[in-house]
Amino acid sequence: MNGHLATALGLAARGVPPLPLRAGKVPFGNCPACAKNVCGGRPNMKTPGPCTCPAPCHGWAAATTDPNVISSPTWVRAWREAAGVAYHPGGAGLTVVDLDSAEAIAWARASLPATRVVPTTRGEHWLYRGTMQSANAVRPGVDVKSLMQYARWLAPSTGSVALLPDAVRALKEPSTARRPPQTLSAPLSTHRGECPHRTPTYLDRGIAMAEQRIAGAREAVHATVYRTFLAVLSTHGRCGCLTDAHTARLFTAAQAKGESARHCTDAWTNALTTLGLSHV
Q: How far apart are the two ends of the chain, measured CA to CA in Å?
């Protein structure tokens, strides 16, 4: 068996969704039928819609834990040409702090809790348990790779994986805190005028109701999760009230009903796209 394929199947068996990388540490390009997302994209891409292409298309979104897909003839051809293996950290419930310099590593050792460390060509990957929005260049030599991003699989590692600390989540905040409210392309059910969502009780009540709605689903769980995410974002999505902690509560409720982390990400991104918030 091809070494990259064997690695990918091993990762998938552990719940880590892999994808093949070409030389230069980049995913395989879309096939002709999917070029420029003319197929409509996969459900968790910015352009929603099903994609039944059997090739490893759409970059990070190609990552999967389905062994039948990973070992399919089209993917086997890609593994033979691949220069490496990548994985979707967010799909595995992880965040990777990518440290690309000695200075960045020194900062992490002084500022972040100890966790599992994987050596890289230029530095280190620090792995944490939990997901967040990915972001590049959050500080010199530091990238954060989690949701809607891929990271290179380098080698097996040992040691415990710590919970994602607030210090890492806060790295993303400076780039979004000063961003003006997004003008939406779809009507929302929110009021006009001063935003009341800063009141903790108002927002917490809404999140609690959303958790109850998901927990009470007896059938069509996928649809219920999506509709609930859509409702939450319709009310709270454009004014900056939602935090990663609120999103984590919703994802936890969905996963308690059997949804995978990948399905939660898909539903959340689809809801953002439907409301015109996908680029916020």
A: 43
Name residue 21's beta-bridge partners: 27, 84
Computed over its alpha carbons, how large is the radius of gyration of the chain? 19
d(CA 275, CA 237): 9
C-alpha distances in angstroms, 84 versus 57, 67, 72, 78, 99? 16, 18, 18, 11, 20
Taking each helix axis from N to C end, the angle separating 261-274 and 244-256, rounded to the nearest 10 degrees, works out to 120
3-state secondary structure the chain: CCHHHHHHHHHHHCCCCEEEEECCCEECCCCCCCHHHCCCCCCCCCCCCCCCCCCCCCHHHHCCCCHHHHCCHHHHHHHHHCCEEEECCHHHCEEEEEECCHHHHHHHHHHCCCCEEEECCCCEEEEEECCCECEEEEECCEEEEEEECCEECCCCCCCCCEECCHHHHCCCHHHHHCCCCCCCCCCCCCCCCCCCCCCHHHHHHHHHHHHHHHHCCCCCHHHHHHHHHHHHHHHHCCCCCCCHHHHHHHHHHHHHCCCCHHHHHHHHHHHHHHCCCCCC
pLDDT (tens digit per residue) in 220-248 = 788 888 889 988 888 887 776 777 778 88
Show the tokens assigned to 85.
Answer: 């293996």
- Residues 127/115, Cβ–Cβ less than 8 Å: yes
**What does the alpha-carbon distance between residue 229 and residue 249 come to, in Å, rounded to a whole number?**
11
* CA pair distance 73, 84, nearest whole angstrom: 18
- Spans in the chain with pLDDT lower than 50: 174-194, 279-280
Structure tokens given for 274:
């439907």
Q: Is 37 within 8 Å of 30 (Cβ atoms)?
A: yes
Strands 124-129 vs 162-163: parallel, antiparallel or unpaired: parallel
